[in-house]
Design brief:
Blueprint: H1 2-60, H2 68-76, H3 82-93, H4 100-138, H5 140-146, H6 149-157, H7 164-172, H8 178-186, H9 192-202, H10 204-217, H11 222-246
Amino acid sequence: MQCLYHEIGTDTDITEQQEHKGSNGEAGGKAAGFAWRTFAGFCLVLALLLSGGALVWFLEDGSDGFSRETMAGFIKSWGIWGHFGVIGMMVAHSFIPFPAEFVAIAAGMSFGVVWGTVLTWTGAMIGGLLAFGIARKLGRPFVTDMLTLNQLARIDKGAAVTSVSAMIGVRLVPVIAFNLVNYGAGLTNVNWWRFTWTTAIGILPLTFLMAMIDDQMREPTFSDRIMLLGAGVAMLAMVHLARRFGVAGSDK
């Protein structure tokens, strides 16, 4: 009997220890999750305030409208900090709705095609990864607060399309909002690596084209026209292929 009581007591102690460890682990996980959400929220609010303030200052600082010329002048007025300004505005674009095409074209006007593309692409990638990560961590309630009902419906409609060809395809189609893909992918089972490399490849052609437009058309030579025409044809071809194969694709 004493052995039986001892075995029962031992089993009970082990069970209690396991439950205690489980509760501690769960509490630790919740605490870590809360800390991460708090930090992410703080960074997001700070980025939005800084970027929003810069945009308000730009729009009210005697500029004659929101155009690529005034945007280029705004970027140049920052001097060396204009490089970071382009990146910051592209990051802000993932959370604040404004025409990012103006930023890309103005970056090309200010820094040339190569650096304009690099800066715009870098900012878009950082913003896209932030939006993807926050949507993945905070879930649908956060995305619901950020988007309209129509945008949410579009996300729900394309939620099952997570193949590689589809992820690249939606980036090549200009009519599909960049932000919708970021938030929508965060709510699916798409992993970080697939989202990162498909976004990096998918947004590059249009980013390059936008940065090249004004820079090449200022004093266009015959070769410039051929380059611009070739880029346009390539872009149209990629959009056609994306619509025909990519968006409807189902390969992993």
